Task: structure prediction
Amino acid sequence: MIQISPSILSADFTRLAEEVRAVERAGADRIHIDVMDGRFVPNISMGPFIVEAIDSLTDLPLEAHLMIEEPDRYVGVFMDAGADVIIVHQENTPHLHRVVQSVRERGIQAGVALNPATPAHVLDEIIDELDLVLVMSVNPGFSGQRFIDSVLPKIRQVRGSITDRGLECDLEVDGGVNADTAPDAVSAGVNILVAATAVFKHPDGIANGIRMLRE
Ligand code: DX5
Ligand code: ZN
Result:
């Protein structure tokens, strides 16, 4: 069963409540919240207040994708704000094991994201502890970029490890996902699709954006 996780980065923030209700009505499985600090990535987006606000609007699981320096200093506030899944990047988290443990100790799911140039094998010693792996299919920072096809072998590799080790871990892809690129990502092994533009900026509206992805 493939899940759809709309990223609110492309939502209309003057109508955030309606946008969240619209994706919920259209059958979204979770909501993806892109947190950017202007340092780890060249853009600044939103923080824990937005997670808290969205948490008050919906019962859908919220995933906080932390594209920030020193994420270990902030995972606590995002958990307090209501995130159900915390995703940190491997590239800037030297004490990955400690961060993952501290998240799971609170009964919250822990995920690790890999940038396009980061190989799958960096997860070899931690994947058994993870609830989710996020493979970035664009360089993080902005919505509306093109899907990088060369990440597909990495998705296959991560799916291989999950299957070989018999893990329950989710495998998610993020960046440039639309009705054209989703089929390849799904064939390569993802079970969660993150999409901002293809949902919130779909010319025929949010519900059609989600329907096209599902089809
Ligand atoms: C990119 C973010 C993505 C982004 C996806 O840095 O992590 O979640 O919002 O946007 P689209 O779907 O437009 O590529
Ligand atoms: Zn994201």
